[in-house]
Amino acid sequence: MKSMLLKAIFYLVGIVIIAFGISLTIKADLGAGAWDALNVGLTESFGLTVGNWVIIIGALLIVSNALIAKERPDVLAVITILILGKVIDFWLLGALNTVAFSTFWEQLIILLSGIVAIAIGVALYLQSKFSLNPVDGFMVALQKRFGFSLTLSKTLTEAFALVGALILGGPIGFGTLVILIGIGPAIQFFDTKAQWAMNKLLS
Question: What range does the record give for the signal peptide (predicted)?
């Protein structure tokens, strides 16, 4: 019971922190991550909020991931995208709605803070071993179906989102490259810390 409660806390706190980090990278206005830029582009082209597009795209990916991997849809991943989408809207439309950054250095600090927050959030939520974010599930589905390495699968999924974001005029820029280069090492760094924290609390 203690183990499950602890995993649920790591899962929920992790997703809230991820949503905060994503919101910071968008507000930095230097270029968002490929999938986030896609969601912003969809918002600007068709309306609805960024969080709603996170949910819609996530739902489509849950179905497509199941078809690609020839497995049952990960229905529990719906919980992940619902929480993530709603919390992103909370930050973008509420707490961070009127926040603006006037200089490049302010924007850069916010961008880097967002990357760190996303990495911490991902490291925490991964410890729960609950359902993956459908974007991560897309990567895993390609790896399972076609035997790609996870690195190639991740590159393909990011390229897919990047093309969509470019077509829709999403915020692709310098920050997109920084996120692409920096997010992996940052997650790796914090993952070991999150594992240690989880094991310490369980013991």
Answer: none
Whether pTM > 0.90 for this model: the answer is no
Domain ranges of the chain: 2-202
C-alpha torsion sign, points 128, 130, 134, 138: positive
Instruction: State residue 150's pLDDT score.
Output: 66
How many CA atoms, within 13 angstroms, populate the side-chain half-sphere of residue 125? 27
Compute the average pLDDT of residues 25-37: 91
Q: How far is the first Cα of the chain from the last one, in angstroms, to the nearest whole number?
A: 13
By the 8 A CB rule, do 55 and 82 touch?
Answer: yes
Q: What are the DSSP calls for 123-186, one per residue?
A: HHHHHTT-PPPHHHHHHHHHHHHH---HHHHHHHHHHHHHHHHHHHT---SHHHHHHHHHHHHH
